[in-house]
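During the second half of the funding period, the structural biology subgroup turned its attention to how the target accommodates small molecules. The most pressing case was pyridoxal-5'-phosphate, which had performed well in the primary screen but for which no bound structure existed. We therefore specified the complex as follows and requested a full 3D prediction, including the ligand pose.
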Amino acid sequence: MNYVSTRGIAPSLTASQAILQGLAPDGGLYVPEEFPTLPCAPEEMKGLPYQEIACRVMAPFLTDYTEEELRGCIDRAYDAKFDTPAIAPLAARGGLVYLELWHGATIAFKDMALSILPHLMVTAARKNGVTDEICILTATSGDTGKAAMAGFADVPGTRIIVFYPKDGVSAFQERQMRTQKGENTAVVGVDGNFDDCQTGVKKMFGDEAFREAVGKAGIRFSSANSINIGRLVPQVAYYVAAYVRLLEEGMLQAGEPMNVTVPTGNFGNILAAYYAKRMGLPIGRLVCASNENKVLFDFFRTGEYDRNRPFVLTTSPSMDILISSNLERLIYEIAGRDAAAVRERMAELSATGVYTITEEMADKLADFFGETATEEEVLAQIGRVYDEAGYVIDPHTAVGSVGACKFLAAFPEEAEAPMLVASTASPCKFAQAVCEALVIDADGLDDLARIDKMAEVTGIAIPAAVEEVRTAPIRHSRFCAVEEMKQTVAAILGL
Ligand SMILES: *Cc1c(COP(=O)(O)O)cnc(C)c1O
């Protein structure tokens, strides 16, 4: 199985090479040259542990990894870092089936991919004769940096350096990062905003002389961002595992379809569900749920992608996105894998912020359905789900829950199939919004006290990850000015 760029100019690569490369040199995203089929029917996977299902789903994508290598990566990723052996358990509540993707180290869905990516990368380096240490450089607005650090912490052959805006993250997020364990992790508070951090990191990637100096020390910079195919492939596995669990529960018979709703930002998670469908998993409709930044909702309704609009800050910040990078992979598929058609549209997007698809392309989107939720609807849904089903959901999951309910109201006949909703964060991660929705008085409390109050009122368990932030000692106390980022990296790497 080789990987080709959606822009069609960069040469094709093996899976491990594509994982090492990240973004293709022509600006495109790597996609499998064809969709593999599931190696066995879902009903034959009943009773298997998550790790085994993941191995069967990922193997046909990662054909240059030996089975032993892949198993090693999976076993090191999906271990006791997760607080349940089910890894991604289901919760059938209020007529929907929530797929809980937040049982990992940072209690949000990015752990599903970032806990395995470091192992896939190190294995890829070994396979391709790269002996350099891999150093992940990343800027974060709070969550992704922590999830990446948790994944890379103490993975031999890797280091990670995370920059965050010193006054631009919550006190809880800062504490989460500054208590991060791992001899190979470094965290730096920058005297600037998130854009400054991101620009600083981009400059280092583009600084040939600096890369050369770093290379002489046996270190190679890399990024862990969400367009890496090594983040997408592991996400396909949990949709297959969810289907298998529904069979086990008797909520589905072999071959019957399930529908899927995904609260969406960068379009990675829902694209993984589409890949699962293309592999032959019986998925009916794919409901793409947006918050008030509803570029994708409009796109699915009109066929026009238009990022020219005000950026709205919502209670689901991980979905506050106007350019959904992974959508390019879907455009490539609906364009009949015509890379020129993709190049044209991506050029329009960067020049004008708008592109449209042809009617023929739109016809291939029949399985997708866009929905959107206002802030008011999100808070009301958190309240309703708790009142009616005794289940507490976070604002991102609530966007999905609203989307699923709107879809089912519009197409009542679809209610025959189970509706899976990707639950992307623990309510503890967004306690402020949840307290507001449930009318829990938490005014004047800090994040940790607010979580305690919410747990006390609702009876939900506080994840170990939260307790750890409370008690772990501060390990990182580096700060720098925007123009000192490069020197700071040099100092951390001992250059
Ligand atoms: C990243 C994230 C999303 C959006 O996922 P995409 O793959 O970017 O669409 C949704 N919810 C949470 C909690 C996230 O962290």
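Two results from this model are relevant to the next phase. Residues 108-110, 143, 263-269, 318-319, 396, 424-425 surround pyridoxal-5'-phosphate (CB under 6 Å). The CA atoms of residues 143 and 325 lie 18 Å apart.
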